[in-house]
Amino acid sequence: MTALVAVFLAPLLVILVNSFKTSSDYRSHGPLSWPQEWNFDILGDVWERVDFTQKLVNSLQISLGVMVVAVLLALFNAYALGIGRIRWRTAFLVFFLGANVLPQEGLIYPVYYLFKEVGLYDGKLGYTLFTGVLYSAFGTYLLSSVFTGFPRELIEAAAIDGAGRWTILWRIVLPMSWPTLSVMCVFFFVWSWNEFLLPLVLLISNDNHTVPLGLAAMQGQYTSDPTALSAAALLGVLPMVIFFLIFQRTLTRGVTAGAVK
After folding, report:
1. What is the pTM of this model?
2. What's the CA gap between 127 and 163, in Å, rounded?
């Protein structure tokens, strides 16, 4: 386990070390050497060059919005498919499974022209709604399998006590499904944060760019500053590290829920 952790952390350590090197130090001693002189000003310089504050706010707004939209849609869809047992349930599940395996490259062309026609192009709201709907296909397929095995006795008992469908959903199904929903929240947030192709095509204004797009702007066609790129990569990965540290226990509980009875 120690060897696997070392292999996994080695690239991150290289990025961390190079983030505090000077350009001359990097050119003289290479990427694997220890800094001869620590340069702590490079992070601030990259922050200003990329306008990282705006990119960070955009990524947080979009990722949180996508997470909420995707989880809510998946919850409603799975409630109808897994517990409601609607007609043509298998056909709907096949549809959502197909949406999961459809490559983004096949979607981007028609979505681009659709956004142009309806006036949602280069807008964070339209992009958030579209990405949330796209991610909800995976959430629907996952939650449907969970809700299929949901204890029917609890639902029947609540129905006998006079609980309606909304009450059953919010008071019984949702609390018992929270471990799975928490895992979906983490997945959707991380996926949306790391998304590159969709925002590259649908969010072209600099004011709407996310963190990955801002970091990509650091790389030119004929010029490259490895130390600045390392510092930019460090700034881009830090929010994800903090996010995982905060929600580590939630993610662990959700993954292991139901493994031991």
Report:
1. 0.83
2. 37
